[in-house]
Automatic annotation (TrEMBL):
Location of the DNA/pantothenate metabolism flavoprotein C-terminal domain: 190-402
Single biological process term from Gene Ontology: pantothenate catabolic process
Family of the protein in this entry: In the C-terminal section; belongs to the PPC synthetase family. In the N-terminal section; belongs to the HFCD (homo-oligomeric flavin containing Cys decarboxylase) superfamily.
Protein name per its UniProtKB record: Coenzyme A biosynthesis bifunctional protein CoaBC
Organism for this UniProt entry: Streptomyces aurantiacus JA 4570
Ranges of residues in domain Flavoprotein: 5-174
Alphabetized UniProt keyword annotations: Decarboxylase, Flavoprotein, FMN, Ligase, Lyase, Magnesium, Metal-binding, Multifunctional enzyme
Transmembrane segments: none
GO cellular component: phosphopantothenoylcysteine decarboxylase complex
NCBIfam families to which the protein is assigned, alphabetical: coaBC_dfp
Pathway: Cofactor biosynthesis; coenzyme A biosynthesis; CoA from (R)-pantothenate: step 3/5; Cofactor biosynthesis; coenzyme A biosynthesis; CoA from (R)-pantothenate: step 2/5
Region (Phosphopantothenate--cysteine ligase), start-end ranges: 195-405
Binding site for CTP: 283, 293, 311-314, 331, 345, 349
Reactions catalysed, as given in the entry: N-[(R)-4-phosphopantothenoyl]-L-cysteine + H(+) = (R)-4'-phosphopantetheine + CO2; (R)-4'-phosphopantothenate + L-cysteine + CTP = N-[(R)-4-phosphopantothenoyl]-L-cysteine + CMP + diphosphate + H(+)
Length: 405
């Protein structure tokens, strides 16, 4: 089979050095990558680096190798174009169809999925001109990955940071994987949608050093967030105690307890098209919290731990639907009578879809794989065979999309 052909456009931002790592990941995983930098990008990383890492000649101009008509051929032949980093200037040019160098020409001739990974200072990202350009590109079907929040060049921090190269690589892999489903110029299937995903496991504190927790790793919720972002959604990931890398283009709200998770999910759900509750939420929390560490005392039995109920967030959202037409998805971990318990739970919680996993020793928790049956309130049953958590994530979004108004 031919190697997938990727064009890596690089515009003139300091994050260009991080694009070298993205390039290396792409070539090592069997992609044929053509790097097309802008003139300004070469101030940060030189042509020799791009050429050596990609194994292809590198040019910024339409006037090199004119007999090969590179300004048309490179775009035409690509399976995917990713511009990383994309500066405010490059986004403006792309939004307006300017074509004054090889990269902007390539963007006009590409008929494949196009991904932009903007990186710039917060003020430039938030400027209405940039935001309107981004909206234009998204409307035309491009996937614009929101920058991350964090340290920027110099002493500044804020939104505008280039996502981790490993996470951008994951976006490329997913978009290429779905390439066959994407109609030319059509927006990705979750474009314009806002989805909320909860992930991880809540921790209910007993004292400053101890908590009641569970074994959820957060991997299934993170897979859902990554999948939705690669399919064009604006994603809010409410993450409870998950020690996992931040997915590219995802807005992350870290929480600790079930009560904090409820607050964060309800806030984000106000304008969400779908809410997926993948988090393992503690049903109970200790009634009291000791502000000092609980000490053992010689000759005394330990004090019993009294538990009180936590709010059932899934049932609350499914019952109230903060937004009309919102699709609500729950998870159920069952050890026996999986289907019957799943059906009963679906009805009790009032959600549209319930993803039922069988759990037990070595199953599901912490693993990269999962197997599930997705039950629909309409009586449907979708079995998802044992496989990567991202396959289950994609099936869940397929089922959500079918139900969105
Ligand atoms: N959930 C929730 N709030 C809670 C507990 C659970 O929103 N306080 C959500 C989980 O995120 C998950 C679903 O409800 O999507 C199923 O949770 P589970 O604990 O299996 O269901 P329970 O109703 O607690 O049933 P069980 O009697 O099996 O514990």
């Amino acid at each position: 089979m031919d190697k997938p052909k990727v064009v890596l456009g690089v515009s003139g931002g300091i994050a260009a050095y991080k694009a070298c790592e993205l390039l290396r990941r792409l070539t090592e995983s069997g992609h044929d990558v053509r790097v097309v930098p802008t003139e300004s990008a070469l101030h940060f990383v030189g042509a020799a680096t791009w050429s050596a890492l990609s194994g292809h000649p590198v040019s910024t101009s339409v006037w090199s190798d004119v007999h090969e008509v590179p300004h048309v051929r490179i775009g035409q032949g690509a399976d995917l174009v990713i511009v990383a980093p994309a500066t405010a200037d490059l986004l403006a040019k792309a939004a307006h169809g300017l074509a004054d160098d090889l990269l902007t020409n390539t963007l006009l001739t590409a008929r494949c999925p196009v991904v932009f990974a903007p990186a710039m200072h917060t003020e430039m990202w938030e400027h209405p001109a940039t935001q309107e350009n981004v909206a234009t590109l998204r409307r035309r079907g491009a996937l614009v990955v929101d920058p991350a929040v964090g340290r920027l060049t110099g002493v500044d921090t804020g939104k505008g940071r280039f996502p981790e190269p490993a996470e951008l690589f994951d976006v490329v892999r997913r978009v290429l994987g779905r390439g066959g489903d994407v109609a030319v110029g059509a927006a990705p299937d979750l474009a314009g949608r806002h989805v909320v995903v909860s992930a991880g496991g809540t921790r209910e504190p007993l004292d400053p050093v101890r908590f009641l927790g569970n074994r959820s790793s957060g991997k299934q919720g993170y897979a859902l967030a990554r999948s939705a972002a690669a399919r064009g959604a604006r994603v809010t990931l409410v993450a409870a105690n998950a020690a996992l890398p931040d997915p590219a283009g995802v807005d992350i709200v870290p929480v600790g307890t079930a009560v904090q998770l409820r607050e964060a999910v309800l806030k984000a759900a106000a304008d969400a098209d779908a809410v997926v509750m993948a988090a393992a939420v503690a049903d109970f929390r200790p009634e009291t919290y000791a502000t000092g560490k609980i000490k053992k005392k010689d000759g005394e039995d330990p004090a019993p731990i009294v538990l009180v109920r936590n709010p059932d967030i899934l049932a609350e959202i499914a019952g109230d639907r903060p937004r009309t037409g919102q699709i609500v998805v729950g998870f159920a971990a069952e050890t026996d009578d999986v289907l019957a318990n799943g059906r009963a739970k679906l009805a009790r919680k009032g959600c549209d879809l319930l993803v039922v996993n069988e759990v037990g020793e070595r199953k599901t928790f912490g693993s990269e794989q999962n197997e599930a049956i997705v039950l629909g309130a309409d009586g449907s049953e979708t079995p998802v065979p044992y496989g990567p958590k991202e396959d289950l994530a994609d099936t869940i979004w397929d089922l959500v999309i079918q139900r969105l108004p």
